[in-house]
Write a structure and sequence with these properties.
Layout: H1 26-35, E1 43-46, E2 53-56, E3 58-63, H2 74-81, H3 90-98, E4 103-109, H4 110-113, H5 123-134, E5 138-144, E6 161-163, E7 170-174, H6 179-196, E8 200-204, H7 239-253, H8 256-263, H9 285-313, E9 318-323, H10 337-346, E10 349-353, H11 361-378, E11 381-385, H12 395-404, E12 407-411, H13 414-418, H14 421-427, E13 440-443, H15 446-451, H16 458-469, E14 475-477, H17 479-483, E15 492-495, E16 499-501, H18 503-515, E17 518-522, E18 527-529, H19 536-542, E19 547-549, E20 557-561, H20 568-571, E21 586-589, E22 593-598, E23 603-608
Parallel strand pairs: 3-4, 3-12, 4-5, 5-8, 8-9, 9-10, 10-11, 11-12, 13-14, 13-15, 15-17, 16-18, 17-20, 19-20
Antiparallel strand pairs: 1-2, 6-7, 21-22, 22-23
Length: 613
């Protein structure tokens, strides 16, 4: 068993800036800093015969203590079925280690560790962590500090809990708008670091919400400390959130007259109930927009401060920023490009939970590449995690999703691995950390989704993205990424459904189409300009740009297409050398390699790109 260090094994280190930071363990990190090679991250082992040294992903799994579960719920029973309560058994750990798993994510929950004020209980935590260390694996910590113990201010009078709009039901989760939440995180992380730092090789930067992820969503019921709230509720009704929104509006508008003109309302005081009524889509557009911008910015600022606390208490320890939710619904306040940018700021991995969630590679690609595109653009590493059960016939989809998106961490549950052990043994050794290279990007209609405008239909968007992926690879971008210069590295931008844009975004796209690249519109798709009686195509027409058909597509301009084959000569690389073998397959061009996935065979091939490609 590894020796328990009594000195501080994580001295403060100077900040390291990496273009594509990857997770390092402590020994690699210190060796890299000492040798001036901090940019050489990850596990470096030969990947292909005759090739240069390549980066391999880290393989993680997780343990959920049965002591936390409400076993009367179906989801808790699925947790047990997926082997998550048995991870720490010696035979399971040995089997996982033999399959390449090197680290186990383990929970530390405030609800459990402080059963009485200032008195801490560590026996279960230490027992489980030591079992992992005894087996020769590493421990990663996921600290759910958003769930306080039952004795702690149970009525939320001193420390606000989230409260749902409409039903006014209080959550068990502390509100990010109450300054006491950050204070409690700071206190607890300090105590945890002092107790556990000798055991930890990795920290997941837990933020808020039901799973400690980057989002406000609540609704799960399978833990003993779960909130009573339902899924889909807007958790912004607590007193601190309301006060924050009022201050934000007063700062923006300056007066009630200006607010009333914008909202077409009759607000009599900034102390009124300014929160949107439900259903959300029935509120005035400006009110919805103000709410979305405030809630997203609030979550972003809170997450930034939380990540700073992790850096403060665990300096030099590799980490990840977890986020889930296939979509980006209004009530989550999550814009996936924002945590990607934050992960880059702190040199941690943006970990996507939901790998292969939509049951086929072409459908699931949208959600994975949504975060991977942003992570690689901003300079963060990307990771994947399965959201509970993946059946055996979906295992190859998940592994190729990790490869195709350049995942530096591949995280899966024990039984997901064991029920598809043959697939994992065949494919895991092939995995490399090599980000995709793609000149085309699909526009993600972020404003349409979060503002709940009628022009956007999620199911239609998913199916069209899947149809495109069956023909060619694509990245995914949103308006915030465009603002940050994303199109400078692209030749093609595709609108697959109707969308809404802010005027500044629309004008920037028109300028790019006039001088740098092509904008493709599938069938009758267009992009309406918010608060203006015009569209992207109409703005382009004012610049003298007409919409061409695919046969007349040039290097710049606007193009309308009706068949998925029409843009392929322009957006798909022509340098692939791997044979398609006459079967349906998915191709990905990487920075140093090309790969091809054959779903019928549940296999993929990867080889180095020629130096001239």
């Amino acid at each position: 068993m590894p020796a328990r260090s009594t000195h501080d094994p994580f001295p403060t280190l100077p900040p390291i800036t990496l273009r594509h930071p990857l997770p390092l363990d402590r020994r690699e990190f210190l060796t890299a800093v000492a040798s001036g090679l901090a940019g050489v991250a990850g596990s470096l082992r030969p990947a292909l015969a005759g090739s240069a040294v390549q980066q391999r992903p880290r393989f993680h799994t997780r343990h959920i203590p049965i002591e936390h579960l409400n076993l009367d719920t179906p989801t808790a029973q699925e947790v047990v079925r997926n082997g998550l309560c048995d991870t720490i058994r010696p035979d399971v750990l040995k089997r996982l280690r033999d399959l390449g798993v090197e680290l186990v994510e383990m929970r530390v929950v405030w609800w459990e560790i402080e059963p009485r004020p200032e008195q801490f209980a560590w026996s279960r935590t230490l027992r489980d962590m030591d079992a992992v260390l005894d087996a020769g694996l590493k421990v990663g910590m996921f600290a759910w500090l958003q769930y306080p113990p039952t004795w702690y201010d149970p009525q939320g009078q001193a420390h606000a809990r989230y409260r749902s709009l409409g039903s006014n039901i209080d959550a068990t989760v502390t509100s990010l708008w109450d300054p006491k939440t950050l204070e409690s995180y700071d206190r607890l992380l300090g105590i945890i670091a002092e107790k556990l730092r000798g055991r930890l090789s990795f920290v997941y930067n837990a933020i808020t919400g039901m799973y400690g992820e980057y989002g406000l969503g609540l609704g799960m019921k399978h833990y003993k400390f779960s909130s009573p709230n339902k899924g889909g509720e807007f958790m912004t009704g607590d007193r601190c959130a309301r006060a924050s929104f009022a201050v934000d509006l007063q700062r923006k508008y300056g007066s009630l007259d200006a607010l009333n003109r914008a909202w077409d309302a009759q607000v009599s005081s900034f102390d009124d109930d300014l929160m949107p009524k439900l259903p959300f889509a029935n509120n005035p557009l400006r009110q919805r927009d103000d709410y979305v911008q405030w809630s997203v910015r609030s979550l972003d600022e809170f997450a930034d401060r939380v990540c700073a606390l992790y850096r403060k208490h665990f300096p030099g320890v590799a980490g990840a920023l977890p986020l889930g939710a296939v979509r980006e619904p209004t009530h989550w306040a999550q814009v996936k490009s924002h945590p990607a940018r934050l992960a880059a700021k702190y040199g941690i991995t943006a970990r996507w939970t939901g790998c292969a969630h939509m049951k086929s590679f072409d459908r699931s690609h949208l959600a994975a590449r949504r975060l991977a595109s942003a992570a690689h653009f901003y300079g963060a590493s990307f990771g994947t995690e399965a959201a509970l059960i993946l059946e055996a016939d979906n295992a190859a989809n998940a592994l190729y999703e990790s490869l195709a998106n350049g995942a530096a961490i591949v995280h899966d549950d024990p039984q997901n691995i064991f029920r598809a052990e043959e697939v994992h043994r065949a494919l895991r050794p092939k995995l490399l950390v090599d980000p995709p290279v793609c000149s085309a990007a699909v526009f993600y209609p972020l404003e349409s989704e979060t503002l709940q405008t009628p022009v956007f239909v999620w199911s239609e968007f998913v199916e069209r993205c899947a149809a495109l992926r069956r023909e060619a690879d694509y990245d995914v971008c949103d308006s915030d990424m465009l603002r940050d210069g994303y199109l400078a590295g692209k030749t093609d931008l595709l609108f697959l459904t109707n969308a809404d844009l802010r005027e500044e975004t629309a004008l920037a796209i028109v300028q790019w189409a006039a001088t740098r690249g092509r904008v493709w519109f599938y069938q009758a798709s267009d992009a309406a300009v918010l608060y203006r009686p015009t569209s992207l195509i109409e703005l382009a027409a004012r610049r003298g740009l007409v919409v061409n058909d695919a046969a007349n597509a040039g290097r710049t301009g606007l193009v309308r297409f009706n068949d998925w084959q029409q843009p392929i000569p322009h957006v798909a690389p022509k340098t692939f050398r791997i044979s398609g073998q006459g079967e349906p397959c998915y191709r990905t061009l990487h920075t140093q390699h090309e790969s091809c996935y054959f779903p019928r065979q549940r296999s993929f091939t990867i080889r180095e790109r020629p130096a001239t490609s």
